[in-house]
Amino acid sequence: MLETALAIPYWLELAATIAGAVFGALSAVRARYDIFGVCCIAIVVGLAGGIMRDVLLQDYGIYAFQKPNLIIACVITGVAVFYFGKLITYFDPFVDFLDNLSVALWAVIGTGKALSAGLDIVPAVILGTITANGGGIVRDICMNREPEAFQAGTVYVSAALIGALAFALMKQNHLFDQYAAITCVVLVLGIRYAALKFGWRTRPARDYSDAVTQAVAKPVKHVVSRVRTHRRPSRAAQTTGLTGKIPPVTAKGVTGSMPPISSGSPSNTGSMAAVGTPSGVTSTDGENIYYPASDDQPTRPESET
């Protein structure tokens, strides 16, 4: 059997079971459950973590069903808390101590049994943490509450994780392994009470996406702007040497607009007389070309003479 592979004192298991049962029964009494409900919650908190561990270990059976004395101890604890709960509430510091002690003891038991089953350090620590906190998680589910172990608040699950890790490392590497259990208990209790004294609390999720995006985007934008600046052509290369509108092409020395061509005899109009249609002076495309009577008259092409 698995329980004989690692020598765990029976009183240690009984103490852890009763400590969890007390805390669970108090939660049920404050929720105004009846005696059956109080006993059930006491069993859940006292033994559910170990049952989850044994289910995950598979071939070794459910230890709580092999030791029915643990179930009977939870029932007796539930009945005592149901009828004498007011007296127990006067000892809240003691109840808190029992809760922390239960977490530490179950971390030792769960991790030790996982190591005795041949598991490595990592799965052993996981099973030890589940054993220590599984009862409280199942209790909150049964009482239709959000699991306290998953909420931001005082350091609770992390203390069990650190204690289970220390126990597994000392046992696996044979480093003062005879003191591994007491080291785990001291670590868990020390972290829990230090968290209460100094206000150590876990925090909910905080999104850093915007900060990371801005930090990454700033240098990228700077590089892109520099690349665009180098690729942009200079203003001198964009200009053609002309500014403003291109002026209309006119004959040299001629200002103003050309007068209309008349078909009759020439007459003096304005600064330049309209010229009739001369005979035999045509362009190669059949259109008449007229030249002003000026000294600057260009030479006619040979094709027009």
Secondary structure elements and pairings:
Blueprint: H1 10-30, H2 35-57, H3 63-66, H4 68-89, H5 92-116, H6 121-142, H7 157-172, H8 180-198, H9 209-231, H10 235-238
Helix pairs in contact: 1-2, 1-4, 1-5, 2-4, 2-6, 5-6, 5-7, 5-8, 6-7, 7-8
Features:
mainly alpha, globular, 10 helices, 305 residues, transmembrane, single chain, disordered N terminus
Structure description:
It holds the Pfam family Gly_transporter. Residues 256-267 have a biased composition (Low complexity). One of its GO terms (cellular component) is plasma membrane. The chain crosses the membrane at residues 7-29, 35-57, 69-91, 103-128, 149-170, 176-196. This protein has helices spanning 10-30, 35-57, 63-66, 68-89, 92-116, 121-142, 157-172, 180-198, 209-231, 235-238. The chain has 305 residues and is an all-alpha fold. The chain has a domain at 2-148. Helix 7 (157-172) packs antiparallel against helix 8 (180-198). The longest helix is centred in the middle third of the chain and has 25 residues, at 92-116. It is globular. The protein starts with 9 loop residues before the first helix and ends in a 67-residue tail after the last helix. Mean pLDDT is 77; it is low at 1-6 and 262-285.
